[in-house]
Amino acid sequence: MHDEWSVCHMSAPLRPDIPTVQPINTFTGHRSAVYALAASPEPGTFFSAGSDGTVVEWNCATPNDGTGIAQLPRPVFSV
Questions:
Q1: In whole angstroms, what is the distance from residue 76 CA to residue 41 CA?
Q2: Which helix (H) or strand (E) holds 70?
Q3: From CA 42, how far away is CA 2, in angstroms rounded?
Q4: Which contacts (CB < 8 Å, 24+ apart) does range 53-57 have?
Q5: Which residues on neighbouring strands pair with residue 46, listed in sequence order?
Q6: DSSP string spanning 8-57?
């Protein structure tokens, strides 16, 4: 099990025929797991929802400034 974990964290791709994905931005704001992402009709924005019960609108140009759309008492699994 330890070997599999180590391989997953190596920077070299496991299969050379599959391109490596690099992060572009990190969007922080949910207090726990994110369960859903949805495109917005406005270019450059999207919505997220998660186990903390929040729905957030994000602008790709300003990843640290999510706008809370809803706060629910239970996890949100889709938007």
A1: 20
A2: strand 67-71
A3: 44
A4: 54/29, 54/30, 55/79, 56/29, 56/30
A5: 39, 58
A6: HT-SS-SSTTSPPP---------SS-EEEEEE-SSTTEEEEEETTSEEEE
- For tokens 């919505």, the residue is 47
Give the model's confidence band at 24: pLDDT under 50 very low, under 70 low, under 90 confident, else very high: confident
The H or E element spanning position 7 is: helix 2-8
Q: Tokens for 31, please give them.
A: 């207090």
* pLDDT of the residue at 23: 77
Q: Tell me the per-residue pLDDT of 33-75, one tens digit each, with 9 for 90 and over.
A: 999 999 999 998 999 999 999 999 999 888 888 999 999 999 9
Quote the radius of gyration of the chain (alpha carbons, Å): 16
